[in-house]
Amino acid sequence: QVQLVESGGGLVQPGGSLRLSCAASGIIFSINAMGWYRQAPGKQRELVAYITSGGSTTYADSVKGRFTISRDNAEKAVYLQMNSLKPEDTAVYYCTQGRGTSWGKGTLVTVSS
Prior knowledge:
This protein is mainly β. It is 0% helix and 50% strand. The strands form two sheets. Strands 2, 4, 5, 6, 9, 10 and 11 form a seven-stranded mixed β-sheet that branches. The relative contact order is 0.32. The model has no long low-confidence stretch (mean pLDDT 97).
């Protein structure tokens, strides 16, 4: 059974940073691409960042240059470093296997002064 457990969300001021973590189990992590999606209140879910099994990354235009996705195959974990956070980054952030094969329950990020 696939389990994806996110952590690291919270309240941060504009301009601040947060690092999200996702611990994976029940999959052969090293051969899977992983992603981070987010859903803001009243909006559709959107793909924020994606990393292939080989380490290639892609980002939504809205977060390029501010967010960094990375992975640690030994720890079976994927991370999302978020810098220069803006109020519009407020959302529930979800870790995914691939582009949505499996989903975590999400972690809330609130950017507010």
